[in-house]
Amino acid sequence: MSQDYYETLGVGRDATPDEVKKAYRKLARQLHPDVNSGSSEQFKHITTAYEVLSDPNKRATYDRGGDPLGSGGSGFGQGFSFDDIMDAFFGQNGARGPRSRTGRGQDALLRIKVDLAEAAFGVSHEFKVDTAIRCTTCGGSGGAENSQPVTCGTCHGHGDVQHVQRSLLGDIRTSRPCPTCNGFGTVIPNPCAECAGDGRVRSRRSMTVNIPAGVDQGTRVQLAGEGEVGPGGGPAGDLYVEINVNRHPLFTRKGDHLFCNVTIPMTSAALGTRLDLPTLEADVAAVDSKIEKTVPLDVPPGTQSGETIVVRGYGVPRLRGSGRGDLHVQVIVETPSKLNEEQRELLTRLAELRDEDKVEGQFSSNHKGVFGRFRDAFK
What we know:
- It is a single chain.
- By secondary structure, this protein is of the alpha+beta class.
- The protein folds into three domains: 5-90, Helix Hairpins (Orthogonal Bundle), CATH 1.10.287; 104-143 and 196-247, Urease metallochaperone UreE, N-terminal domain (HSP40/DNAj peptide-binding domain, Sandwich), CATH 2.60.260; 252-354, Urease metallochaperone UreE, N-terminal domain (HSP40/DNAj peptide-binding domain, Sandwich).
- The chain has nine helices and 15 strands.
- Helix 2 runs antiparallel to helix 3 and helix 2 packs across helix 5 (82-90).
């Protein structure tokens, strides 16, 4: 016997079984043919050494100078199971064990539509949802009345079955879920007629979700434990309610701010005016009569078309924080297209008084240089 098994594994002659196992496990990870294609012979050597030193009888024979393998062969495949290799890699012979019939259910997603005012100020929304619930007939056990799960006769309660395949490296044993019990280790001889042994059934139910103030398009509200009940009547997952906001006829939302346009005649833009601007609160004023429906909007004299007036604090309440955004109102100045004789005379007289009866116009390029754009950025 030219091979020194202790030297092959790199352990001393007084090494404990755990030390032998640890040394083999380390070398097997490095020299396994699936990891290192050129190490088949070395892998066979360390495997033979492990077979001898891990067996108390063979180790004692070897220490006395005898032949622990009898025939003097390599020993691989002669009583040495691939389970030992699996144990070296995974520490548990590759066995899965029976899995539980009870598991957590999946999360569910539901999309609902709300108005802009409801998203801004919050609302309680009722809806119907179709999910799996615990079977009321069997209570989630999956069995009929007085019927209990029994040990599977195929896997004998292990939940998996072993398959042995011959190869150049010896007997390769693999573990697969038992086809009879699907890996549970038990079977239900008399399943519940309502849920067919699953422990859950589909049902439509009514729910109410409290939508907080300030939610926006795509915001998801989580309802813990209101999703799908798990197999075997296991705990339910969560239900996520995704908010879709309907388009508003007046306001456009960007973040916490609201935007709208107001069209005024050119005389009001020139002289200045005050308007009653509708607020988003007007959409919910029918519910609460104390809510103000409008807010005064002062248009200063000389306002140009396209200018924006900001009304502070009339935007959308902040979802995470205090306060509200602002309401941005863009002014559009309307030029009259039809004038009667008296109006035309008045405008002509105004143009003469302002020396605007003969206007040459002021033309300029739309192109702005670097310094021009830099200057406008700070205006």
